[in-house]
Specification:
Pfam families: Pyr_redox_2 (PF07992). The chain is an alpha/beta fold. It has a domain of 171 residues: FAD/NAD(P)-binding domain. It has nine helices and 22 strands. A five-stranded parallel beta sheet has the order 5-2-1-9-19, covered by helices on one side. A hairpin with a 2-residue loop joins strand 21 and strand 22. The two termini are 24 Å apart.
Length: 356
């Protein structure tokens, strides 16, 4: 039996574990701090629903006894073993690192489903109680969270009883990976939802006060959606990571540092790490892991994204508003709002994890 160890039970790690568990001759071990998988793109909706119903599944429900589950933190790894905090060393023949990223406090969920539900209840209590909520960071996560809050509290906002602020250092919302028409649509829709936008200004704190540039922003509750970092365990392997701590991979998802270590998802050195290419990227990863085990050439590859790419994406702004774009060989074009609302905003992918 060939021992395959996977670190991280996010979307990429869980999908890979499920597919590889069906391959004869492979012994799969999955190391995860959490005993469940949650659909991270749905977290902005979880803030207002205060539950994970339809947005999470326990690992035991998904895998049963088809693989070995170790609930622990991977502290470090080399090309032969993973060292965990409580369970010691886990030896492997092939390693897949899918540890994702370190998110802001509000988006980083606890290790059990019950504690995650409590997390959202406490977060909701704070935003419900606050009169002036400030979200710092106007990327997709920040815009989606603001959209959820603006929809949930639209009556209070209209009456002047609550205010939602969004501070973003860029001169427009989102990033350069979104086309101008999509960015302008999101900006206009948020303004139409009475969100106060502070664009082209860096957020700073002075005690309890929040500033956008030199202007004080009325705030009694802050939510950060900036500062996401790769969640990569320590490793002595030379050349494994870049200066940002991201794992350097080839288009095959094989790491530059060691041929028997693969990596995928938010922890790798791809400019764009969205889940839109989940199935395609996982198919390439799994096929190449199998080829490596069978001592065959790794023929499957992806085209690594570049800084100028504008990929297919959708931005939900609560259950009734959205904007999005589609990438084609002829360019990237905006999509009708109703299509994104139907495809994403109405459910925020509720039930998507049933595909695993």
């Amino acid at each position: 039996m060939t021992r395959i160890t996977i670190i991280g039970a996010g979307l990429y790690g869980a999908f890979a574990a499920k597919k590889l568990s069906k391959v004869p001759g492979l012994e799969i071990t999955l190391i995860s701090k959490k005993n469940y998988i949650n659909f991270v793109p749905s977290v902005p909706r979880n803030f207002v629903t205060q539950n994970l119903d339809g947005y999470s599944r326990t690992l035991e429900e998904i895998f049963g006894d088809s693989i070995t589950l170790i609930y622990d933190e991977a502290v470090s790894f080399d090309d032969k073993k993973v060292t965990t905090r409580k369970n010691g060393d886990v030896a492997f023949d092939v390693l897949i690192v899918a540890t994702g990223s370190i998110l802001s406090r509000e988006f980083e969920l606890p290790n059990t489903v019950d504690s995650a539900v409590e997390h959202f209840k406490k977060e909701f209590e704070q935003v419900e109680r606050a009169k002036n909520i400030t979200v710092i960071g106007g990327g997709i996560s920040g815009c989606e969270l603001v959209g959820e809050l603006a929809h949930k509290f639209k009556d209070e906002i209209a009456k002047g009883e609550k205010r939602i602020n969004l501070i973003h250092s860029n001169s427009n919302v989102l990033s350069d990976h979104e086309i101008n028409s999509v960015r302008q649509s999101v900006k206009s829709q948020l303004e139409g939802m009475n969100v106060k936008l502070y664009l082209g200004q860096k957020a700073t704190l002075d005690g309890d006060k929040v500033y956008a540039g030199s202007e004080e922003v009325p705030t009694d509750h802050i939510i950060w959606t900036t500062g996401v970092k790769p969640n990569t365990p320590d490793s002595p392997l030379e050349g494994l990571k870049n200066e940002k701590g991201e794992i350097k991979v080839k288009p095959t998802f094989q790491t530059v540092a060691s041929p028997n270590i693969f990596a995928i998802g938010d922890c790798v050195d791809f400019v764009i790490k969205a889940v839109a290419p989940l199935k395609k990227w996982n198919s390439v990863l799994v096929d190449n892991v199998i080829a490596y085990v069978q001592d065959k050439p790794l023929t499957k590859q992806v085209v690594p994204p570049t800084n100028t790419d504008k990929p297919t994406c959708g931005v939900s702004l609560g259950p009734e508003h959205a904007a999005g774009q589609i990438a084609t060989p002829f360019g990237t074009f905006s999509l009708p709002v109703f299509l994104i609302v139907q495809a994403k905003s109405k459910t925020m992918f509720k039930g998507r994890l049933s595909e695993i």
